[in-house]
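Q: My labmate handed me this sequence with no annotations at all. I'd like to see what the chain might look like in three dimensions before we decide whether it's worth expressing. Could you predict it?
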Amino acid sequence: MAKETAAQRIQRIKLEKNGLDVIKDIHRYAISGEDVDSEDIDRFKWYGLYTQNKNLQASDDETLYFMLRVKLLQGSMNLKQMRVAAGISREFARDTANFTTRQSVQFHFIQVRDLPEIFYRLKSVGLTSIFAAGDVPRNVVTCPVSGVDKNELYDVREITKEVNDYFDGNIDLVNLPRKYKVGISGCAKHCMGHEIQDLSFTAVEFENDRILFDVSVGGGLASNNQFAHHIGYVDASKILEVVKSVSVLYQAQGLRENRRKARLGHLITAWGIEKFKAEVEKSLGFEFEAEKTQEYTPYAKREHFGVHESKVDNKSYVGCAINGGGIGAKGLEDLADILQKHGATTIKTTTTQNFVAIDVPSDATASFVEDLSAISIDANPSPFKARTLSCTGMKFCKFAISETKDTAVALAEHLHETFPDFNETVSISVNGCPNSCAHPSIVDIGLIGSKFKNEDGETIAGFELILGGTLEGDKSRYGQKTKLKVEPKDINNTVEKIISSYIKSSQNNVGLYVRDLIKDGEFDINNLK
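A: Here is what I predict for the chain of 529 residues:
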């Protein structure tokens, strides 16, 4: 009998036991202490759990540790939730806690024995890890300042809640071909990143103040390396209907023979966008509206940093940057204390691993910002700290080749010290492997984990440099590989040379400048001025 493929194995596992039913086994393993069956480990993903790299384990430590991802619905985290998350981090996760590019928070060093208590604490404050991973609809991303931004095109909070409610533990969507990512945004700066979602809805203003939503499908990075296709516009009242139609279609028709070819975008490629659109419209019973193509904000400028007056009287929202999403137990505790001290209650995380405090009393913003600065959280961050992303990296991720979190923090700090007066937007990503969790292909300067031989002929773990990516609607482009392999010790100086060269040039767009550094597919850093 032929050995089953990875795709066949996962399909069998999902059919033999509903992923949501593994919660019974989680409790059993926690009580009995028995070894976790390898197939149940895969099912643990339905509750946001991944096994982690053993790099930081002592040689005599045989414990099976997990990363736990917890969804923050609409990116929201209130004071009680922050304090519970801080407690989980401190008691069960060795003080780890990181905000993700999908507006979630994740912890490391989680043991099975502690999961019942962790799940109980999460549920007590309205948090959940259900469908935070696995072949299911993931956390719906949205604009963090929806409902408070005076410039927003549409308040999508209620719509996003309806979609989240539809997805929440939906038994009909428990076995999708692969992960499935949806975004909804009424943001005037288009911060949600619709171009890389499987399905997205982006508010667009037309004549007579009419607001429609751009429907885009099939976007993704890594194996599904394509920008989403625009298929038309719908009224806000139709968004949930479209979500249901596309979700059911993907569940029924998605490709399951190859795990690397199973995202929604792969189905669209196989069918063609016109057939896919026609099938969705047939299911809906109406056609998408056709309107002019929208102009979108460039990726590096999609942010909400600083102090802004809210729609709510006497309230302001404050956009803040942290280092590569790293917040930790103490950071969560300190942040909750500062919010409470100044009469604020809630933060909203962003798709760039930062957050916005959304209800700060306007007369307290100056002292609020000052207190945040004391714990290294910046409301007016340097351009480098503001938009430097990093994935989990080799410390915890089994797929990572290179260390990322510390590298990203050190790089941002080095660039700020070297160019303290630099004030242009620039996006940077430090990604530990080719899987694109930190979106290295859509930033100005991307670093992708890679193994190569150094000058002494030794195989080392470092990074490959890619340049010139961005998101900007139909002007989006992927970064180009430079073929330059960089040792970890040379990262800071390499990026410094690129920024220095840009400053000396006569150009006024970092992304276009770095893209043009690659000539005929070749890049030579020694040619930089």
